[in-house]
Specification:
Order of helices and strands: EHEEHEEHEEEEEHHEEEEH
Distance between the termini: 23 Å
Shape: globular
Number of domains: 2
Number of strands: 14
Strand content: 15-25%
Number of helices: 6
Structural class: alpha+beta
Largest sheet: 7 strands, mixed
Length: about 250
């Protein structure tokens, strides 16, 4: 069955891009139960498959049963998946203090469904783009502190928050910034920072002592066996039409 319309797809949100084998299998079986034989991967680490015009209440009950968030894909998406560079840990060079548990703790702290595109990324890796979100948290050299780059598509620019933000405040500041964005008011980053200070929103900051340095690292070839940092290899599988067979994914 050929899929031509994005609006006919269901997006299963995979927060941070990491998923247990059991949850992956649940999504595969759910997609199969909808009459599909393949799934697709979205640009924001989500898993998509045709809805086959199933009623909304059927979709809601099915996803509630496996405890995974979803949305019908389309041009007017309400919610967004959180993207992270978790996949890069132990595969390519990464910042020394950014580990698997770092991402787990940060993702778990988001107890709401973001409407803004949020990226949580390591600047040394090249597997995941740094600035494709609206709120882009980029690891600094200071342990558990992050640069925040805000991309405003309405103005077509990216601005850096005046100070480094603690990881423990990441979800909180994201939620507050989302409220400002949804008001459709053209605040500058400096104005938003002053608003937070004047409203006594207590956040753990550190001064930015040096600007973020971007590294010119080559993106590893995405297909075939590739060497990792620990004398192991990872296998990249690529289909140009982005259709991945459910039977193969379930067996893997």
């Amino acid at each position: 069955m050929e899929v031509n319309r994005k609006s006919g797809l269901v997006r299963a949100f995979v927060k941070g891009g990491f998923l247990s084998p059991l949850d992956l299998l649940k999504i595969m079986e759910l997609a199969r139960s909808f009459g599909n034989d393949h799934i697709l991967f979205g640009s924001r680490q989500d898993i998509m498959f045709p809805s086959n015009e199933l009623p909304e209440d059927h979709l809601e009950k099915a996803f509630q049963a496996i405890n995974i968030d979803y949305e019908l894909a389309g041009d007017q998406s309400i919610y967004q998946n959180i993207v992270s560079s978790y996949v890069a840990v132990n595969v390519v060079e990464t910042t020394h203090w950014v580990k698997e548990d770092t991402y787990n703790v940060l993702i778990d702290s988001f107890e709401y469904k973001p409407k803004l595109k949020i990226n949580i990324v390591d600047p040394l890796q090249s597997l995941v783009p740094l600035f494709t979100g609206e709120l882009n948290f980029v690891a600094s050299k200071e342990e558990n502190y992050w640069y925040l780059f805000i991309r405003d598509s309405r103005k077509g620019n990216i601005e850096c928050w005046p100070k480094l933000i603690s990881g423990q405040d990441m979800a909180r500041i994201s939620r507050e910034l989302e409220k400002l964005f949804l008001e459709f008011l053209p605040f500058t980053v400096e104005e938003m920072y002053l608003m937070f200070m004047n409203n006594f929103l207590r956040l753990n900051y550190k001064p930015i002592t040096e600007k973020l340095k971007l590294h010119n690292t080559a993106f590893p070839y995405y297909e075939g066996l590739n060497a990792m940092l620990n004398n192991q290899y990872w296998l990249g599988l690529y289909w140009r039409n982005n259709r991945y067979d459910i039977d193969f994914m379930s067996a893997a």
